[in-house]
Design a protein that fits this description.
Length: 78
């Protein structure tokens, strides 16, 4: 792995850990929970209210919806 890839991964790791400290998280366009690159980080989110919103029902998100018209009141997420 190149130095820039290692630096990029370290940056991603630090940001995911920071996000996981929040209590209520909305993952927009994430499909189903913890797919793709987030799977290794799933345990970090075990004490959060983690909600996936996607416009594709086939990806089995928690909520099927449009990011331009969120079905939540303002200030609902950290």
């Amino acid at each position: 792995m190149s130095s820039s890839a290692t630096t990029g991964q370290a940056f991603f790791d630090s940001k995911i850990k920071l996000i996981a400290q929040q209590q209520k998280i909305l993952d927009i366009g994430g499909g189903s929970r913890f797919q793709k690159q987030l799977r290794p980080y799933q345990k970090l989110f075990q004490h959060t209210d983690y909600i996936c919103l996607d416009n594709n029902p086939d990806s089995k998100p928690d909520i099927v919806g449009d990011a331009h018209h969120l079905p939540f009141p303002n200030q609902s997420f950290d």
